[in-house]
Write a sequence for this structure.
């Protein structure tokens, strides 16, 4: 066999890899048009709700935990008598970490199963894929993950943080600690780029200097150069919007370079209790995170939530912010339906304003105008035991402001 | 100046990682011409071996030392199994080998998911390897990268000596240069193939142990590395180790320099453009093996 032949086959191999990557990224949303407002089937003595999470593929690691906590909420509500006297019957679908699949399954849940509401999605890409489906059918989605803001669909309730409830408080905290300069490190996709745009606008208005900004492709695990740049910049702190495996490589490199949480703290917005387990406390101890909930958040509601979750899924399973937001979403939907006295989507929406729930993270209130919820912002420090303990909180729930309209420095952003 | 040396070292250490993941492939692909898409999963097997050993051996340093030979044997054994069960039957059908090993790679990933779960697992690195050597002028050199550099160079040295000086090495070279002539001269070529595959896969296991010091340990870690490994071997020239060594370090330094001056994504583009241009100029790679074989 000639040497050339080997290379031609190799080219075939690369094509195969590339093709596999492309199928994973290709996105096409179903758009049949016409159908408007499929009404939920609530004729029986049960009411169906849809659960739409990735149970397979690259996002399964995170989304399975969200599915688990949604199921926990459903069981709690059923044990307490259901919603408007009807037991909740969950219909689960697998989004398979593939955005067109999310859109297809959303359509199926709404049109075929005629569910009253859908709980799920994680990545912004999956949310963007299902958004037109929910809007076309006038059906409800409860989305549980912190995201990049600048969105407000009438048929989505956002129970995770928007930017002014996570990133802005993170910056406020750094500023209060005397940080005059930051270095931005993030994965190369929509969330980190949008977040960094906001951070730069904040920095300009608050006398902070952004000493550098670097992006790594998702899945990238070589951080030698980026850490070198961070180190030689001499920044007071690092704002980290990396996602997934890259965090592991970044923090290992960070420690090897002799950088410490004391000298140059890193604030991360995508590392929760579950991720800490995969990176190792050896590398993370003392670093900071910005969220709205930690497993260690005090309060009776959280003790109950943590105990119930561990009893159902295992003592070694940590609870995290997106899981809590998903759990809260189900309870908020129940409260909205009961206030409206009906499952009808428009009635539920108009009943939503001012609904409160004593959540594990503390009291949350639905803002009917933006369909986001007011949440307390919390900065936490990662401990040697892998848990995150709060070092600062906003004192009271922060009203959601997805378009950052109340921040003068953000006027040029959207 | 400090930054310059820091970057130079970063480049060399990226090169060392590339070398370590490509070395095994230089044997199985470079010498035997088998395109083994599951090579990355042997790296993963080496990393998980480190993880499993740490469950029973408490000292992080000791478990790392023990993991090196054990991972070599584990990954090597997986390689032999793959060779005996599948690849041997497909030597005349390279395209089928490609597809079959791609399938094996997917199966091994799923196996890892079923056994260890889809979240990443972590190992503790010995304290010594998480620190760094401080040089005058504020330059620091990370110990884990020094360790990987030393490991890569040791592996190259050992492999070179084995191929040059041992009877086994002579047989491997004979089979690579002219399989038919080697066979009629009394060399059991199929046994040599199996041994070569064991060594190549074992080196992947070694790379896996080293990578636990740098990055994540998860089911998909191998797929992220396989393309880089193939690039090094193809550009280096098939059938020669020294090509892979030179190219690994050259690509490492190019990547680090490009990344420092621009961004990571642009640096990747620069590296790929350089590779394409180079292969236009020298399609056979940096070095080629002169052979009298007719194929």
């Amino acid at each position: 066999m000639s040497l050339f032949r080997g290379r031609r086959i190799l080219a075939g191999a690369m094509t195969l890899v590339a093709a596999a990557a492309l199928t994973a990224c290709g996105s096409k949303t179903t758009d049949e048009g016409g159908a408007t407002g499929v009404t939920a089937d609530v004729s029986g003595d049960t009411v169906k709700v849809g659960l739409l999470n990735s149970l397979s593929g690259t996002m399964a690691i995170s989304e399975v935990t969200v599915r688990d906590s949604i199921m926990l909420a459903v069981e709690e509500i059923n044990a307490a008598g259901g919603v408007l006297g009807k037991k909740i019957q969950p219909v689960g679908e697998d989004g398979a970490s593939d955005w067109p699949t999310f859109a297809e399954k959303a359509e199926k849940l709404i049109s075929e199963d005629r569910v009253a509401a859908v709980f799920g999605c994680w990545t912004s890409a999956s949310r963007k894929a299902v958004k037109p489906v929910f809007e076309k059918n006038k059906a409800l989605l409860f989305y549980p993950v912190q995201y990049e803001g600048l969105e407000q669909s009438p048929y989505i309730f956002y129970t995770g943080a928007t930017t002014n409830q996570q990133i802005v408080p993170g910056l406020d905290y750094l500023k209060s600690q005397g940080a005059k300069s930051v270095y931005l490190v993030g994965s190369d996709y929509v969330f980190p780029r949008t977040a960094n745009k906001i951070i730069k606008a904040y920095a300009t208005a608050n006398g902070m200097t952004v000493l550098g900004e670097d992006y790594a492709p998702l899945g990238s695990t070589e951080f030698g150069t980026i850490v070198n740049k961070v180190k030689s910049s001499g920044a007071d702190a690092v704002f980290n919007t990396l996602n997934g495996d890259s965090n592991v490589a970044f923090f290992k490199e960070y420690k090897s370079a002799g950088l410490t949480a004391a000298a140059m703290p890193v604030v991360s917005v995508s590392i929760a209790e579950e991720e800490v387990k995969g990176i190792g406390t050896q590398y993370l101890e003392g670093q900071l995170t910005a969220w709205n909930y930690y497993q260690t958040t005090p309060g009776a509601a959280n003790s109950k939530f943590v105990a119930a979750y561990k009893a159902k899924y295992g003592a070694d399973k940590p609870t995290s912010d997106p899981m809590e937001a998903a759990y809260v979403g189900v309870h908020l939907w129940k409260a909205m339906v009961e206030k409206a006295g009906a499952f009808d989507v428009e009635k539920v929406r108009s009943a939503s304003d001012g609904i409160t729930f004593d959540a594990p993270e503390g009291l949350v209130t639905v803002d009917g105008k933006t369909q986001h919820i007011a949440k307390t912002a919390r900065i936490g420090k990662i401990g040697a035991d892998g848990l995150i303990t709060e070092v600062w909180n906003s004192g009271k729930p922060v009203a959601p402001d997805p378009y950052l309209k109340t921040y003068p420095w953000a006027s040029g952003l959207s | 100046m400090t930054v310059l040396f820091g970057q130079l070292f970063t480049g060399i250490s990226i090169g060392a990682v590339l070398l370590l993941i490509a070395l095994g492939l230089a044997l199985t692909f470079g010498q035997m011409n088998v395109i083994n898409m599951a090579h990355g999963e042997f790296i993963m097997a080496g990393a998980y071996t480190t993880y499993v050993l740490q469950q029973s051996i408490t000292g992080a340093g000791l478990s790392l030392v023990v993991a090196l030979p054990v991972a070599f044997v584990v990954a090597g054994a997986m390689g032999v199994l793959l060779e005996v069960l599948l690849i041997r039957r497909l030597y005349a059908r390279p395209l089928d080998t490609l597809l079959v090993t791609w399938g094996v790679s997917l199966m091994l990933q799923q196996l890892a998911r079923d056994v260890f779960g889809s979240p990443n697992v972590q190992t503790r690195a010995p304290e010594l390897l998480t620190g760094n050597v401080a040089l005058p002028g504020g330059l620091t050199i990370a110990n884990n990268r020094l360790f990987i550099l030393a490991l890569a160079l040791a592996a190259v040295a050992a492999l070179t000596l084995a191929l040059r000086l041992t009877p086994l090495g002579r047989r491997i070279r004979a089979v690579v240069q002219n399989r038919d002539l080697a066979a009629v001269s009394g060399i059991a070529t199929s046994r040599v193939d199996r041994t070569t595959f064991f060594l190549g896969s074992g080196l992947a296991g070694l790379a896996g142990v080293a990578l636990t010091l740098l990055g994540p340990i998860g089911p998909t870690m191998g797929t992220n590395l396989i393309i880089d490994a193939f690039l090094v071997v193809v550009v280096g020239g098939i059938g020669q180790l020294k090509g892979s060594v030179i190219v690994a370090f050259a690509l490492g330094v190019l990547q680090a320099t490009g990344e420092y001056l621009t961004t990571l994504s642009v640096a990747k583009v620069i590296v790929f453009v350089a590779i394409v241009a180079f292969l236009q100029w020298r399609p056979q790679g940096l070095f080629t093996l002169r052979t009298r074989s007719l194929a």
Observations:
- The CA atoms of residues 300 and 360 of chain A lie 8 Å apart.
- The radius of gyration of chain A is 22 Å.
- Chain A touches chain B through 49 residues (CB under 8 Å).
- Confidence is low (pLDDT under 50) at residues 1-6, 21-35 of chain A.
